[in-house]
Amino acid sequence: MHSLIYISRSLLTPANRAREIERILEAAHRRNRALGVTGALLFTGKNFAQVIEGDPDAVRRLMQSIRADPRHEDVRTVGEASCRRRTFFGWTMAYVGTATYVQRHIDRLLAGDAAGDPTQVAGLKRLIFELALADGVDDGSLRSA
Questions:
Q1: In a 10 Å sphere around its CB, with 0-12 CB exposed, 13-18 middle and 19+ buried, how is residue 117 labelled?
Q2: For the sheet containing 2-10, what is the strand order?
Q3: Cβ neighbours of residue 100 under 8 Å, at least 6 residues apart?
Q4: Cα(2)–Cα(43) distance, rounded to whole angstroms?
Q5: pLDDT at residue 75, rounded to an integer
Q6: N or C: which end of the chain has fewer CB within 10 A?
């Protein structure tokens, strides 16, 4: 099992944001289910942060597609590791929603000495998981069948 966390800068405008995020999530559910990938997406209004878990080859293929998506830029992998079990088991793609207060954490991960810091990366992953649970994602509405 492989886990990857990336951060990217959004190119969505306020006018198209809701529609495009809905499209991202629809595509993610289909593609992730087919690839056996689980994870969660967080949006701050400025950045996306996403956790992807699955077979290493599936995660790599998915990242190629994500990097080519014109709705964001400056895609940076901030954490990557082998893992024994999934954190987001059963979620083809949980969506946390607009979590603007996480922006400071993301800014620290992208700048200076904290860039790629394993403690900061683990903290971001934990935040995404906790926010997904708090948003009611654990009710099964976004879980794979």
A1: middle
A2: 72-82, 2-10, 47-54, 38-43, 94-98
A3: 44, 45
A4: 22
A5: 96
A6: C
The angle, 0 to 180 degrees and rounded to 10, between the axes of the packed helices 118-134 and 103-110 is 160
The three-class DSSP label of residue 28 is helix
* Confidence at residue 98, expressed as pLDDT on a 0 to 100 scale: 73
How does DSSP assign 34-65, residue by residue? Answer: HHT-EEEEEE-SSEEEEEEEE-HHHHHHHHHH
CA dist 27 → 10, 23, 62, 84, 86 (Å): 17, 6, 11, 27, 21
Tell the residue number behind the tokens 């998915």, with chain if given.
62
Domains of the chain by start residue, with CATH: 2-139 (3.30.70.100)
Flag residues of the chain having pLDDT under 50.
138-145
